[in-house]
Amino acid sequence: MVSDLVIIAVDAIGGDYAPQEIIKGGIEAQRDSEVKILLVGPQKLLREQIAGYGADFLEIVDAPEVIEMGEKAAQAVRAKEHSSPMVAAKLCREQRADGFVSAGNTGAVMAAALLTWGRIPGVKRPAIAIVIPTPSGPVLLLDAGANADCKPENLLQFAQMGSAYARKILNIDNPSVGLLNVGEEESKGSELYQQAHQLLKASSLHFLGNIEGRDIVHAKVNVVVCDGLTGNIVLKLLEGTTEVFFSEIKNKIKESFLTRMAGAVLAPGLLDLKKKLDYEEYGGAPLLGLNGVCIISHGKSKAKAIKNAIRVAKRMVLNNVVMEIKEEI
Question: Which residues contact 57 (CB under 8 A, 6 or more apart)?
Fold first, then answer.
């Protein structure tokens, strides 16, 4: 950390609602979270935007180049050194910032951070760790999309990194780990998962064995490990199911006078449940295994999610999660 104040570089032009919602999230974070925000993006555009919010106290770092969604990530970050992901990552490398938050192109953010910082020594592949909110508490799932093809030792390292994060950020003393599979028996699944099961079983982790998809929402374990293809499918399915669930409840409540009355009675409980299942409460997904703090926010993130992503980045810095993972690996 470069000073007593945690400094977070925020990609101001990444995401569906950039730059307005990103700026608003930065304003709220700097006012409420005791952090300093560096807005990274085209200087002229951002100055015009923050003037409209009366947020001249936010510092802007110019990044005039833009990486489009259709570009190949690795090629784009190499060709565009002055794009927002590259500039934000360099700010961290130069110790002008302590962490980096972006709701932009996930591949570009990952490539920029990996190219600029490198991996933690011993880590073979970084992983995206997603906090899945459940009524019983948060469950950490990784990998959620960084690695479609994995080896057994990758899954073991995902579990080690996830356990370190759960201890430091989710405040779970001895996080339990489950291997996502098609059944609970050790012999279930592909050769990858059978070999990973043996590695996890022989490790010092609090490994509870294989779990099935339904066990995630019941929070049977604190950390769920799988390959990135499976993890991303699980994540998108859960997001879609939650959206449909609350949309259908809303439609049913509007059907008649009696259902509206019932809705009024149930409203406090439903609002509390919605808050528990809201991804915006957790802000974003840490990219674990890199030699720095990087939070990848949902592309549809609005101000609340950005503010909370900055809060998570700050906590990762203060709790020295990168060092914790180094010791775990």
Answer: 30
The DSSP line for 240-296 is: HHHHHHHHHHHHHHTTSHHHHHHHHHHHHHHHHHHHHT-GGGT--EEEETBSS-EEE
pLDDT in tens, the chain (329 residues): 445 689 999 999 988 998 999 999 999 999 877 899 999 999 999 999 888 877 777 899 999 998 877 778 888 889 999 999 999 999 999 999 999 999 998 899 999 999 999 999 999 999 999 999 888 889 999 999 999 999 999 999 999 999 999 999 999 999 999 999 999 999 999 999 999 999 999 999 999 999 999 999 999 999 999 999 999 999 989 888 888 877 888 888 888 888 887 778 777 776 776 666 666 666 789 999 999 999 999 888 999 999 999 999 999 999 999 999 999 88
User: 132-282: same fold as 6-123+289-328?
Assistant: yes
The full length of the chain comes to 329
Please enumerate, as own/partner, the contacts of 229-232 that have beta carbons within 8 Å and a separation of 24 or more. Answer: 229/145, 229/148, 229/149, 230/180, 231/128, 231/130, 231/141, 231/142, 231/143, 231/144, 231/145, 231/180, 232/144, 232/145
**Domain edges within the chain:** 6-123+289-328, 132-282
- Taking domain 6-123+289-328, whether its CATH number is 3.90.580.10 is answered by no
Q: What is the CATH number of domain 132-282?
A: 3.40.718.10
